[in-house]
Each structure stands twice: as structure tokens, then as C-alpha cells.
UniProtKB/TrEMBL annotation:
Pfam families: Methyltransf_25. This is Methyltransferase domain-containing protein. Residues 27-117 form the Methyltransferase domain. It comes from Rhizophagus irregularis (strain DAOM 181602 / DAOM 197198 / MUCL 43194) (Arbuscular mycorrhizal fungus). One of its GO terms (molecular function) is methyltransferase activity. InterPro entries: Methyltransf_25 (IPR041698), SAM-dependent_MTases_sf (IPR029063).
């Protein structure tokens, strides 16, 4: 569901001005379910796609022959030679990497990109605007937890600056303020469903820390979110940042 909300927002699987005919090798860092890679591999059959994830999950469905899924930790380096890839893609990775590791990771991306190649990030700012009491308390817990682990969810706002400092050119850092809730039509409904799935998946971590005696009590509580969305009309910021490795 989350994948489709991003695809709806971007009107496709990426926004970088990549010359599609030049795509021969692409890398996704933190591939998750693998859905982005599989869609891209089907769309670009002459390109080889590689995915790196510290907790790999081979897709349940049959995946294209031009996909390869690799278990590795990008914080320890990217296991490919210099100038291997035409395009590197990352999505929802900011909350898995400590703040002081991001510059080394982006330097590694710069290294493995071919000259003229592109990198693109799609990340979420976890500070929702105009949110009600339920959503606000849940997101405060998660932000506090990440910050305790030296992870800064607000770093999404600085991606363009970090890319420029690393040596990328033609950098763009764009913010999309997107609604949450069926009150806002198709996109709002997709985003609320995506958020609800995440809240259910993470319930085992959340419920005790938010003062609930049982997981079931917490799940019952968050059933009120759609009503809250209709009342407060919240929205959240998504950031897309991309940059190109210079030709010389």
C-alpha cells in the first residue's frame, strides 16, 4: 500500500531526469518487499537490478530474472566496485541509519555511481501537521525512540545539502505536503491505509510504551484515527531529493 501511495505521488517509480535508454545497472538500498525493483525490472528488461537489505526478504511472488537480492549492511560499505551503477534508489531508509553514518553512506553511493549517474531518495518527515491527539502521541513516541538511537527523522529536510556537499550536481530537494485520511480523496485514503498498516505492524512495540495494558486495547484505540483524520485534516511532508555524479 505504501508503495502505491508513493507511486501515485510521483506519477511513476522515480522522478530523477535519468536517461532511460542509459539504464544498464541499478541499485536499490533497503529494498524491503522488493516491489519497486520488480516493477522496474519488468519495465526495463535490459537493465540489471540489484537490491541490498540488512534484513532481506525474497519476494513471495516470482520475480524477474534481471533482479538480484543481496543481504548486506550499507553502513559497512556498498559491496560493488567503483562506477558500477547508472542509478541508485533509496526509499524510507532514514529511520534505519544513524545520523552520523549518512555522509559516509552517501559518499559510498557517489563512489559506486558511474559518471553522469543519478541517486534519488524518497523519505518521510515524521512530524505530521494539524494532527489530533492520537496521531500526535504515537508519532512523538516514535520520534523520541529514534532520537534515543541517534537517528534524526528530521534529517530528510537536509538531504539536498548533504548531496551537494558530497559532490553531486543538479541537486533537487522537493517537499510534498500530502493529506492523510479519506476526507482528502484517493491520495488521502491511500496514505491513511498505508499509515494504518504501519501502526498495526508496529503495535507490539508501541502499545506498552503508550500506556496500554494490552495490544488489543491499543488496536481498539487506533480504530478512532479515521474519525480524527476527518476532524483535524492532517497532512505530512514527503521529501524527494536527487543528484547527479559529475561527468568529470
Amino acid at each position: 500500500m505504501q508503495h502505491y501511495s508513493y507511486k501515485y505521488m510521483c506519477q511513476g517509480n522515480f522522478t530523477s531526469p535519468v536517461k532511460k535508454e542509459n539504464l544498464k545497472k541499478c541499485l536499490e538500498i533497503g529494498y524491503g518487499s522488493g516491489i519497486w525493483m520488480m516493477e522496474m525490472a519488468s519495465e526495463y528488461p535490459n537493465c540489471n537490478f540489484y537490491g541490498i537489505d540488512i534484513q532481506p526478504k525474497t519476494p513471495d511472488s516470482t520475480f524477474p530474472n534481471n533482479c538480484e537480492f543481496i543481504k548486506d549492511n550499507v553502513k559497512k560499505g556498498i559491496p560493488f566496485p567503483d562506477e558500477t551503477f547508472d542509478f541508485v534508489y533509496l526509499r524510507m531508509t532514514m529511520i534505519y541509519i544513524e545520523s552520523n553514518k549518512w555522509k559516509p553512506v552517501i559518499s559510498e553511493i557517489f563512489r559506486v555511481l558511474k559518471k553522469g549517474g543519478w541517486v534519488e531518495f524518497l523519505e518521510t518527515d515524521m512530524t505530521f501537521k494539524s494532527s489530533g491527539k492520537i496521531l500526535k502521541s504515537i508519532m512523538k513516541f516514535w520520534i523520541d525512540m529514534f532520537e534515543a538511537k541517534k537517528i534524526d527523522p528530521k534529517l530528510t529536510r537536509q538531504l539536498g545539502t548533504i548531496l551537494s556537499e558530497t559532490g553531486f550536481i543538479n541537486v533537487l530537494n522537493k517537499k510534498y505536503s500530502l493529506p492523510i485520511g479519506s476526507w482528502a480523496g484517493t491520495l488521502g485514503k491511500i496514505r491513511s491505509q498505508s499509515l494504518d498498516i504501519w501502526l498495526y505492524v508496529t503495535a507490539d512495540i508501541s502499545y506498552k510504551n503508550l500506556g496500554f495494558d494490552t495490544k488489543e486495547e491499543y488496536l481498539k484505540h487506533i480504530e478512532n484515527l479515521e474519525t480524527e483524520y476527518s476532524e483535524f485534516k492532517p497532512y505530512g511532508d514527503q521529501y524527494i531529493a536527487y543528484g547527479q555524479k559529475p561527468l568529470n
